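Give me the fold.
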Amino acid sequence: MSGLSPELLYYASRMSGFSTNVFKIETQNQTTATSNSIVAFDLPSNAIINLRSFRMFFQANANSVASQGGRLPPVKDLVERVEVSMGGVVLSQGTNFVNVLSEAKRAVSEHCVDSVLGHPEYIRATSYVNPADLYATTANENDANTLYCIDEWEGFLGTAEPMLFDTSLVPMMRVRLYLATDNVLSSVHTSELGVADTKFSDASTASVNTGPPTNTTAVGSPKYALSDIHATIECISIADMSYENMLSSQMSAQGELEVPYKAYYSFLDTHTGTSKFSVSASSLDRIIMAWRGDNYNTVTPPITVGGHKVAGATELGKPQYDLGGVLNTNNEKYKGRYFNFSQPIAFGTTTAWKMQMQLNGSYYPQFSAGIEEWYGITKNSLEGSRKSKDMTLDQYRDNYCVQVARLNMPNSEFSRTLSGVDTRATNLQGIVRTENAGTSLNPNLSIFLETTEVLKISAGRSISVVV
């Protein structure tokens, strides 16, 4: 019977005494924050919490300095590092530039930002959060009556299994969120549609550097601020002792409980032909490489994603490919320079750029691959439930240039199998080499190493981490 499809079977499973509710969590230190601040939350103790339900709410604006034309990115990009600790023991040190990691995943797969409270798109002239907000020349984005929300997290909160976590087994859990710098914002001169130097988006002149061209007119220095910061989380309870007895039996038989979760290590480098990284981990699962222009850290107007609307046909604009809008490009779409990933060659050229990695004595792939071949490798390296993003090759080169190399068994995350490369005996030394990129362009290469770590829980709320 177990081999039959559920659609053919007539049965129902019942669980008695189950209840659920959502609780509000106040911060431990402050309800307002600006760039480089740290916001901390203590999660409920002696409860079964749904880790995936952890959400941070806040009001956000780019109006701390008036008339700088500040524009917010997707609000999850305002958090640069997420750290989870238990009784002072840090599960992982927290990935620096987790906002860049999140946008790199979003660039090549269907990672999404909530369209209601996540502020997924850049606002040009009229806010889609509150349509009454009209942004004129150098007007800052500021909606004082809206709560935004971050509901998707990298690391322990977003990947730990089981996601229904019993906090009575561990010391007090604390979440620390480190906010990003003001450089994640964009600054505009005008709300007028277009890519010329005096328009809303990036300049249309040619660029000999990596990354799209920048406006020659000086931009402002906006700053963002958060207020009314709080969080919510779902807690559940089971009336009978079946769950507690099961955990007690498992701990008695095995001596401990194991909770696997994803951890990330980040390396940033000004790439001049080779970039190095190293890691010691029990399961190295993926290597994610994201390329940004040499001026990625400069606050500029937003960048128009390839193919989408620019000036023409009056304020309606026209797509850059065909007037009908090939592959859903008959609309406006922008990216902040801080999160725009572009092929590390002179912008707009067609140089036959190639890349290969060396992992200790092995090469990956076994040939020097071009960008089209690396896109095929990337598609094969995404998690099983993630589909590749719909985009054109032009957009992949200029706006979404991210490569992923999978080193673990396909779909092993869903069976809680640690099948990645074990580099603890010999610390892995990695090198990223490129050809035909030019050594004078100095693009920024962000390398993220995705590993699986294991939280081990023993009697008496004793914990340890296997890296």
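The chain has a mean pLDDT of 90.
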